[in-house]
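pinned: reference chain
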Amino acid sequence: MFAGHYSAALAAKAVEPRAPLWTYVIGCQLLDVGWSVLIMTGVERASVDPSLPGSGLVLEHMPWTHSLPAALIWSLCAAVAVRWALKLPWRVAAFVGLTVFSH
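pinned: its structure tokens
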């Protein structure tokens, strides 16, 4: 699963190399970083079921990170943050936002 996320970051870097690689790498994992914070605060929920084959993680409630509207908002916020903080052109910021959305 993570290889797919990072491949999106590497592909975006190949297409738009003006952004630092770390912005793409953080971008492709941003939803999971937010998810882990929201799990720890109790906003989103997950549980473990050891009887499941493979991963025993049961993802119960993730509307603030992994829903389509939330992913769009996270992507837009990331693009604006990159544009503002790193002073990158809008095209570059859009690629970072697309990398976030690719999650």
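why pinned: Residues 2-101 form one domain. Residues 54 and 90 are 41 Å apart (CA to CA).
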